[in-house]
Amino acid sequence: MRDHGRGGPALSAGRKGGPADADVSPEAEGSGLEGRLGRLDQILAELEADDIELDRALSLFEEGVTHVRAAERLLAEAELRVEELLGKGERTDTLKGGEG
Description:
With 100 residues, the chain is mainly alpha-helical. The chain has four helices and no strands.
């Protein structure tokens, strides 16, 4: 997992207009988890600039939220696949070594 120096993943955006959970460009839509995390790193770096304008910052934040939500969906889908592979009675807790 990436360390963004602020205690968590970056949320940001480069889109103009539209709801925060709307899809981004078709290129980003097809991005895997690694591509989305890479873009979030780029967005974070731009947001941390001292001279960023408010409109650009809001746009970057919006794009970031979209990437985070898409990444969460990808991770949830992967977890379901793991659970299916383990069998219906077992959960991913066995992989983590957790009790319960």
